Amino acid sequence: MLAVLLLHVNRPVQRESLIEAVWGDPAPAYAVNQLQKYVSALRRILEPGRAARSPSEVLGWSEGGYVLRVGPGGLDLAAFERLVGRGRKALAQGDAQQAGAELHEALSLFSGPALGNVSSAVLDAERDRLAELRTAVLEERIQADLDLGRHGRLVAELRRLVAEFPLRERFAALLMLALYRAGRQGDALNVYHQVRRGLRDDLGVDPGTEVEELHRRILAASPSLSWQGPPPGAEADGSAADGQEPAVPDGTRGVHQLPMDISEFVGREQELRELRELVEAPGTGGAEAGERGVLVAVVEGMAGVGKTRFAVRAAHEFIAQDRFADVQLWADLKGFTPERAPVDPANVLEDFLRLLGVPGDRIPGGVEARAALYRDRLARRRALVVLDDAADEEQVRHLLPGSASCLLLITSRRVLSGLDGAHTIRLDVFSPQEAVELIDRVADRTHDETGSPAAMRVAELSGRLPIAVALAGRRLRTRPAWSMDELADRLETDEKRLAQLTVGRRAVEATFDLSYQWLSPAQQRAFTLLAAHPGPDCTADSAAALLGTGRGEAEDLLESLLDEHLLQQHVAGRYRYHDLLRLYARDRAADAGSLEQRTAAVRQLVRWYCAGAETARLSLEPWWHRGPAGDGALGNGVLSEEHPEVPHLADDADSALKWLEEERANLLAVSREAAQHEWRGCTWRLATAAHAFLGLRSYGTDCMEGLRLGLTAARGADGRARRARTLADIGMVCDSLGRHEEAARRHHAALAVFEETGDRHGAATAHYGLGCAAFGLGRYAESAERHHRALALFEETGDRRGQALVLGNLGLVNWFIHGRYRESEEQHRRALTLSEECGDRRVQAYEFAGLGLAHWFFGNYAECARQHRRALALFEETGDRRGQAIALNGLGLADWHLGRLVRAGEYHQQALTVFREVCDRRGEAVALQCVGYANWATGRYDVGEKRLHETLAVCAQTGNRSTEAWSLASLGHMCLRLQRNDEGQEHLEKALSLSRSLGDRHPEASALVGLALVSLNQGQLSSCEEGARQALALSQSIGNPHNETWAMITLGLACCFGDRPEQGADWHRRAAETGQRTGDLFTESMAVNGIGYACTRLGRYEEAERHLRAALTTRQHIGDRHGEAETLTDLAALMHATGRPDAASAYRELAQAGFAEIGVTGTQDHRVVSSSSAPRRASQGCRWDRGGM
């Protein structure tokens, strides 16, 4: 109401108008009374001292309406309209100074949107009118500022307004004019294109006459657009007014030397922000300087990275923000210009002093005197000095201003570390997104090609180096018939890439030439020769081997090239080229030296890596022996038996692992290089030496490539033994990757050679590999036979480590054959002893894990966890990631039974992640099955079922039939819990058939329990009992208490449903005792719940409630949500039987909510005992599944 009265100040407003404004139409019946209350309240607020019932002097009644009386100057809207009127009049009379002052003051009255906190149809219309008026006044005020020559300081404000009002063309026109007058013609034209594109995209129209005409005049550089200077007494940017002291001496007026900004500038937001923060700190850019010295920022980076463009953009941003507005000086120091020396700083100082108004005859002759006068002329001035392409610190030292109000911005290809107090901004190549944006902007292609995968290819092939990216875009623009894909294809060829990145006289290669020509001969040799290194990076050690120098000299050369930004250091102590610089260096190498010299250098590097890999493997595996250094057939006369020393590689496993990990990519690249040169001896030795590490870290793909190169190198009659060893190594890698059939073929081929040559140790290795492959294929009898043959041969040759490996595998094989679980445990113990004797910590870790699995099977879950923790510690110590995954999975199995269901799931998930990372498909299948079962146990059936189906898919791909049997059994039990009885039966029957064909009795027992539950759900109690007794007998025969407990619980259920609750209670008690003995909280709580249910059927209600509440507590504690809902159902039945209907109803609702939460629907309360105590048939909705792993 107050807002409406203020809009009609000193004029009567009818009651009906106020009611419509406040409540709208139709108004409520109480509107008139409420309006009177509002008036009274307003009068009390506006006139707090007015006596009661006395007439109001401020809000009165006149001519049938309320009048709000406000004196002159009391209403901001009236003041605004008055100031706007005076400003418009002054503008029409050409008095920009007066117009600007009036309009600035008018706009200052706004603190936000008019009528910002009230709303109605009347007020909304008035708000829109005032907003439009305010915007129009803003346009007029900016026009006045432009007439006063304040174009520099208007750019930032206008950019914001154009973004805020994208369809208001007047703001765009004003921005274009401000940019043009600031010397930024390119940016002005870019604004036009952005506006034009936006209008077309949004509205399908072109800009209006004003913008189009201004665009035409900017293109033509119309003199009429230039600022003509302020009228007498007016104030422009940086000039004086009203007799004030000038900001700079007369001679400096107009010293604005910055080059034109460019519209193609993209990215660099972080670096620009870094520079802005530096400048905006107290004491810079005209702020109070305090004790701080001159601000110096050095922009450094490799050739073509965009240092000059960055400096230009940063400088124009500062000017647009009215920083350093007094003086802007620019000098190209030509530090890397071909065929001419860098500019003498004395000459630069002479030019600067002339620009600063010093007559030529008053400029001193000496550089020191010139520098002193230069600092004096810039003292206390807001000056920006840009020194582009500096050669070194000495060239710029005399060009530093002396005042903290100045900014010195230097660009250089070198590291200028000798400038005290300078802040360094290092420019790197573009991000992928920035590079693609620049290509799109320069190439000016259709929307179909912008941001396309082809554009990303061009960006990457250009190394994301700004000059190369821009030239690639211009190449496209000058070749309209080319597609982005065609240019990318042309850039794919290394030999032609630099030639393609050329447009007219501009070329990436020429840019690099400027840096290369200033290198010393030693630097040029190092720069070109290092490009012969086949790997992605090098160290001082490997560079010394390649260059034929000492380590210290090599490091000095590397660091000097790093200072020249011709090399990069992505990790401390490691150096690499930018992709384009590597190509350039190779081109220069072809021009500079002979092929024989480069080949000799690379050969020495290959020797160095060969020695390093062998030394590292001996540190990892002291029992490993190198082969001969290289005879004529293998070495091709290239390698001698002497290898260079490998510096900085300590004789311990940790140092070896670190070196091998850091050099992994280089080792493979060097192997390829050796193979290409047919240095067969070293190719084979590299493959053999690196094999152990690559296998340890599960780098299967790299390991396979290296070994295949070694296999090709080991040809010829005298290379058969090495070929056989390589075949055996390849077979083991295939097995780790789940390619068991291929692994068997490789081992068979190796075995044939070993037997022919009488190599009994090699034959043992091949039999061992064949046993591993057969195990992976589920052929356990064959696997056992092969392992026994390998064991005999290892014993004959005295290889205790080989014996330990075989015994450990036999422990696993016997696990899956006819339930030889005790024999399996004993073999793991023997393997552990042997591995301790020979000092192989990795084999020890695997045997700890094997013993942990045995303890899990026999129900010693705490000991299972302990052994897997020991295994995990050793696996982490030796860097065996696959082993870590095995140990994590074992910890998950132990925790599952110990009632830590959530943590068990986390362990299994971690194991799954690692197995996938190391490409172990067999391990992936096992972990997937465990993840599925862990989700099954906690009631997350949707996730559990998905993971089990994923397990079956992996098993089908890898032939892992044992895990397939386990997964089918788990999936069957899950289906029973979800009341999909027929589907569950199908999965369980498949599991039973498969496990029997494999001789794997553990999943066989689980499948038997599940099928017994199927019979229970179908009401076939005798069939249920028969199946459960089979499962019990089988579990007892193999000594597995877990499935034994499940079988007893199932028998207990069958007895309860068969009207034998006393026997049912006995079976559940036996099951509970077994669960308690083994620490298996999951099955123990299930059995305790069964006791409670049986006691309810027997009428022993107090005992029943005690057991049911104990089961509920445990199930809630361990996170068994399905079990919790079952126990709540049984408590509801107990409450019903004992005449507590309210409690029964409450428990039933909780149970139903619990089942619904985990996705189990349609459950029936089959536990409610009738008054006649007649047993309920299982066919009446029995949803019990007590089966498990």
From TrEMBL:
Residues 1169-1179 have a biased composition (Low complexity). This is OmpR/PhoB-type domain-containing protein. Residues 222-250, 1166-1189 are annotated as: Disordered. The lineage of its organism: Bacteria, Bacillati, Actinomycetota, Actinomycetes, Kitasatosporales. The keyword DNA-binding applies. GO terms for molecular function: ADP binding; DNA binding. SMART domains: BTAD, TPR. It comes from Streptomyces abyssalis. One of its GO terms (biological process) is regulation of DNA-templated transcription.
